[in-house]
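Lab manual, section 2.4: Encoding a predicted structure.

Procedure: take the sequence of the chain (462 residues), apply the prediction step described in section 2.3, and record the output as structure tokens. A sample record is shown.
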Amino acid sequence: MLSGPLDLVVQNAKIVTSEGVYSAEIGVDEGKIVRIAKSIEDSAERTYDAEGRYVFPGAIDGHVHFKLKYFDDVYTADDFYTGTVAAACGGVTTIIDFVTPESLNYVEDFRRRRAEAEPNVVIDYGLHMSVTNFNEEVVKNLETLFRSEGVASVKIFTAYSKRGLMLDDGKIFKLMQLCKKWNVLVLVHAENEYIINSLVDSFVEEGKTEPIYHSWSRPDFVEAEAIQRVGLLASVTGAEILIVHVSSAAGLEKIVDHRSKGVKIHGETCPHYLIFNEEVYRRPDGAKFIMSPPLKKESDRQALWKGLLDGCFSVVGSDHACFDSVRKLSPKRFTEVPGGVAGTEVIPMILFSEGVLKRGMTFRRFVEVTSLNPARVYGLYPAKGQIAVGSDADFYILDPMRKTRLTKENLHSNIDHSIYEDLEVNCNIVATFSRGELIAEKGVFMGERGRGRYLFRSRGVA
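Recorded output:
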């Protein structure tokens, strides 16, 4: 029993869960949900009137890149502060970023990255460990991270050897065996390095350097082949894997095929693949849309939407890694353009407007891919991912009657443009609560820098 008044009661809420929608009030104390009832009689320090609007579990974006170094002193436009402010204003209450190792001492690199985030994040956060080498020292460091530092996921690349990120198949196999032992999730950037390099070299030699050739140098089959390969390695090792930023129908088909055979494989797609196709690369500002994997054909975009509605994707993440216009538009060749776009703030709005309202996405699917599944897959459940007694009081209020144009002026990323400038969504994020604290309301961030907490994640025993 609580001895004093609750910290917060949210009244007139239309609560949305994976089980359905119902009207109730939410009682919060010490950052946790402690009451859900038709009417809460307990006194409260604060009340908030949701005015009959939808209240969703806080979105979890498990794929962001804040303060990401591109080369030398060139970093993404968003750091841990501006990036998490943007996330919060869009209803995202948890993010997971990455540690890119600078040595074989992964524990030291992890702690350095956490030290960069800690004083700046405004919402709760976790860190994936990217694995770019594999030997006895790396194994020892990884096991320390798994055991003591709350790391429950790693990331591998089947491309980017020139940037020192790619892991060969033999090392991927051994890493998957280790991750199976510890029940650690393996995130995979899946593209065939060698085919890409061959196509890029051919296009550059022919003087074909415009942005459209970025897409054509990374066609759908380079993604599909890599997914086929890592899926096979997952099947023989028993590891659980997540293919991030799936961009093609062919890639999604490989995920579905592996899953039908019992492989523990998940797929993630991103807002930009659901809204745009490769035709934007023909625009004068086409370089702004360069990311990897690139946007594909309209048939791919439609297939990704169908896969999302049908349950083929487990999660939606943003792959938020944005660069200002001068960085994107100055290079003469597509090969020199830093890859990445903004997106963490728009996930709930785009999925609600384009998915729920326009395409009939169920509330269940919406909650699953934005909150519940990410919490489960990344080792955050049951504290995160749901509106339930005992869970963290992370939720946002969405108004389905108010439109929002996704312009630079209406969004909160530190980037100087919005690739969604021409898109108007039929909803608006009214307020965001993180552990019961109102941190954003009506497009204004109200929280404090550094209030976010590091999340020690665990996916249980394998």
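Check your result against the sample. The chain has a mean pLDDT of 97.
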